[in-house]
Here is the input.
Amino acid sequence: MKQRRQPRGYAMMLALILTAAVLGGSALALQRTVSERRAMKLQQETVQLESALRSGERLAQSLVAAARVGPQDVTLSDVNLQLRFTERSALPARYDVDISARKGSGARRTMACYQRVLTLPACVGCDGAGLGPQDVVEQVRVLAASPDACVHRVEGAEPVSLPPPECAQAPVVVLDVTGDVVTVVPGTRTVQGPQMVHVRGARTVRVAGVHDLTDTLLATTGDLELEPGAQLKVDGAVLVNGQVRGAVEAVSDEKAVRALLSPPVPGCTDVVTASPG
Amino acid sequence: MSRGYTLWELVAATTLTLFVTLGGVTALQVRAKGERRADALRQALHVVKRADAELQKTPADPCAVHHALPGEKPADCLAPRSGKLPGGTPYHLTLERRPALPGTVVARLVFMHHDVELLRHDLIIPVGDEGRRP
Here is the structure.
């Protein structure tokens, strides 16, 4: 009797072991699938949230550039994006932006800072005569009374040089220095002390820091449609090969002041707005 | 010698073997299916990351999203586009303006897996009001 039952017992044991192994293996495989799926979901959430934050930054940049700053609640696929602006300064227009993204239980948040900067083509309609980044300008003057002047290269030490005829119609304004001429020489030098410069329109423009003369001052004048006789205050500007590296800040009593150019603030991104050329 | 197994024993053993085998095969199938889905999702997320990276380089360029997708980009970057990722995952790209988001275009990437939506992701592109950089 005992001898007869033994093989059956072994078979039973083997079957049970086999069953346990297959079931255990299946359970492990399923568990692994579930945990992988969870990890993928987490990865998906991370990628989507991070991407939504980048989208939020681009949106904030676009809104600052277009002067349409305001709270934004946006749904991007299944991510909720929220933008909250805080004005850091009106002049120059500088905003802190709190960007947060939510998806399910996940959330990400970032802070960014944007300031509006306007640019204008150096010389519209007169190719080659405009002040390029490689040009060396000996002397630059504002022709305040001239509505259609053009930034141009002045040879030698001539205090005043009229713009070339082809620039006559170009809607670009140059700067006029009262009592002194802003002299730009090859290399780097610093303009000492405050200097008063006439530019059409702006009440006060401060230059201190890093900016391009062609972009900043021209943008200021071009964008504001400045009136003759307004003053520019140039203070401690660093001039490098025809470029004023500094901040330009235009202050006016009028609401329309938009040409705000200022030194880069750490963590603050310049939003460049091209003015109509 | 041992006598043969009873009918009930044979039926029980066969049923158990069948169930266990079926269970094992199903588990393997589920796992394989899960892996294929995970692979497709991984690829889709890679495209999203690449599109984001391209947009970081040229934020206002709708063509940047196209650069992240395999194949040739269309002449008009604002035109919709469909195709397949190297792994065979179909994708659809549409770019549309939303009234709530002036000055921008929203690029929507939809990835499919076995005719089911696998991933949908929107990217904001600040193209300006006239379709130019703001």
